[in-house]
Amino acid sequence: MFSKLRKPGQTRGNFLYKMLTYVLFALICIVFVFLFAVPGQMGIGQGGIAAVVNKSTISMGDFEEAYRRISSRQGNLNTEQTNQMRAQTLEGLVNNELIYQAAQKEGLRVSDAELSDFIRSIPGFQKDGRFQRQIYDSYISGTGTSQERFEKSLKKDLLIQKMQNLFSVVTVPKVSGELLDSFGSLKANISYIKLDEDKIKKFLSEGQTSEAYVADIDKLLSEKNFDGAVQKLKTAGLGWDKTGDFQLSGASVNVPGIGYSNEVVKAALKAGKDNIVPYTILSENTRFIVKLTDKKNEKPAFSLASLNLLKSAGATMQNWVESKKEKSKVIRKLPYN
After folding, report:
1. Long-range own/partner contacts, residues 228-235 (CB < 8 A, 24 or more apart)
2. Where would I find the H helices in the chain?
3. What's the pTM value of the predicted model, to 2 decimals?
């Protein structure tokens, strides 16, 4: 994204604004990036302070780790471009800290259950769609950090995301009070059968195709012959599994064991609890049979009054962050090249 930092005709103001947007997104997603990178030291061992935000500090180790993750995907940069990227990386960390502090003040939180559900849903910690503790422990060991430090950092990132999601709700016109009241608190548990193509192929007799087999399953489902469809899959060694409770928030919902699929969620919710969706759903090149097992609506920690206060602070997250920055004590100590 930074391979061509400034295009002809682009003003410095527009360039920096767009660059800041990219960096903000990248920083919020750092935890997702490093989960699939070669483990490093997560910024450990580098002393010094890059910035102070109110009474909290941003260490040079955290800054260098964030900068390394972003810059590793870029080509050779000249001195000006490097300084711009370093400055915007630091600014993104400052903004994240302001968002985090505001989230805490508003009473938002990430529960241990939410953290556990999220970790279990990360594909990098799964094998055959199931969370593997050994893979998770190996990753923690490879980073040179502790499980406590890793999960504390991840919890902070998730809280920042929750605050950003909150803004995506309050800035959408004509949002119902019911949606606002339930935001961030709605969870679902979906049962599913994965139509594993490899398993199906082993079961087929000569001349049969997996496409025809899946078409037969869809026909049974459309005819509401759910028992027949489930029994047919059972003879091929395919049975029900469960996602466990997962959060219904964000633009794209990550369904554990299935992947990012809003269609799965919408179809399961529409069918209702314990009702099988009458067709297979394609998610990440695999088809699934799904049904809603449970839906929970936990009371959120924040109120509609808090939402209105946030709404009045600015029309966008960026405006709101800038207004918070003006009222906060921010000291940047980062030396540039």
Report:
1. 229/276, 229/289, 230/193, 230/276, 230/289, 233/193, 233/195, 233/289, 235/203
2. 12-28, 30-34, 60-71, 79-105, 112-121, 133-143, 147-170, 177-182, 197-203, 210-222, 226-234, 262-271, 304-313, 317-326
3. 0.51
Best CA proximity match to 310, nearest among 55, 103, 20: 103
Torsions phi, psi for 185 (to 5 deg): -115, -10
| Cβ atoms of residues 56 and 95 within 8 Å | no
Q: Taken in order 302, 307, 313, 319, is the CA torsion positive or negative?
A: positive
Contact 333, 52 (CB under 8 A): yes
pLDDT tens digits, residue range 319-334? 778 878 888 999 988 6
- Nearest-CA neighbor of 265 among 226, 239, 291, 297? 291
192-207 pLDDT tens trace: 999 998 889 888 888 8
Q: Where are the alpha helices (DSSP H) in 204-316?
A: 210-222, 226-234, 262-271, 304-313
Regions of the chain with pLDDT less than 70: 1-47, 166-185, 249-252, 297-316, 334-337
Q: Report the Cα 113 to chain-centroid distance in Å.
A: 16
What digits encode the pLDDT tens for the residues 239-273? 999 988 887 765 567 788 898 888 898 899 999 99
Interhelix angle 79-105/147-170, rounded to 10 degrees, is 80
CA angle 221, 226, 227 (to 5 degrees): 145
Question: What are the CA-CA distances from residue 239 to residues 20, 134, 140, 196, 328 (Å)?
Answer: 47, 25, 32, 10, 55
In whole angstroms, what is the distance from residue 307 CA to residue 336 CA?
A: 38
List the domain boundaries for the chain.
Answer: 12-180+303-332, 186-297
Q: Quick check: 39 and 143 in contact, CB under 8 A?
A: yes
Q: Which residues pair with 330 in a beta bridge?
A: 53
pLDDT at 47: 66
To the question of domain 12-180+303-332 being in CATH 1.10.8.60, the answer is no
* pLDDT at res. 297: 67
Separation of alpha carbons 284 and 261, rounded Å? 8
Predicted local distance difference test score (pLDDT) of residue 75? 72
